[in-house]
Amino acid sequence: MDGQVIVGLEVHCQLDTKSKLFCGCSTDYRSDGPNTHVCPVCLGLPGSMPVLNRRSIEYAMRVAKALNCSVLEESEFSRKNYFYPDLDKAYQITQYDKPLAEGGYLEIEGDEGGEKRIRITRIHVEEDPGRLVHMGTAERGRYSLVDYNRAGIPLIEIVSEPDMRSPKEARKFLNKLRATLEYLSVFDSEKEGSLRVDANISIRGSERVEVKNITSYKGVEKALTFEVTRQKNLLRRGQKVERETRHFLEARGITQSSRSKEQEHDYRYFPEPDLRPLHVHSWLQDIELPELPDARRERFITQYGCSLNHARTLTGDLRLANFYETVVSPDPVTLATLADTWISDTLIGELNYRNMNIDAVDPAAFTGLLGLLRMGVITDKSGTEVLRVMLDQHKNHQPCEKPAVIVERLNLRKVSATNIGDTAADISAKSGVEPDLSIQSNPIVTAITEVLTEHPGAVDDFMKGKKGAFNFLVGQVMKKTRGCADPGEVNRLLAEELNKEGA
Amino acid sequence: MEAHTLTFEPDDRYNAFLTTCTKAPHGEGPLCGVTVAVKDNISTQGIETTCASKILKGYIPPYNAHVVWLLRQSGAAIVGKTNMDEFGMGTTTENSAFGPTLNPRDTGRVPGGSSGGSAAAIAGGMVRMALGTDTGGSIRCPAAFCGIVGMKPTYGRVSRYGLIAYANSLEQIGPMAQNVSDVSTLMGVIAGYDRRDSTLQDRPYTHTPSADIKGLRIGIPKEYFGAGVDPAVAGAVTKAIGRLEELGATTLPCSIPSMEYALAAYYVTCTCEASSNLARFDGVRYGPAADTKKSWHDAFREVRRAGFGTEVRRRIMLGTFALSSGYYGKYYAKAQIARENVKKDFARIFSDVDVLAGPTMPTIAFKLGEKSDPLAMYLTDILTVPVNLAGIPAISVPCGKVEGMPVGLQIMGRPWEDERVIDVAYAYEQAVS
Amino acid sequence: MATEQEVHHIAELADVGINTEELSTFTHQFNAILDYFDVLDRVKGDTAGTRDLCNVMREDIPEPSLPREAVLQNAAATEDGFIKAPRVM
Question: Do A266 and A360 lie in a common domain?
Answer without folding.
Answer: no
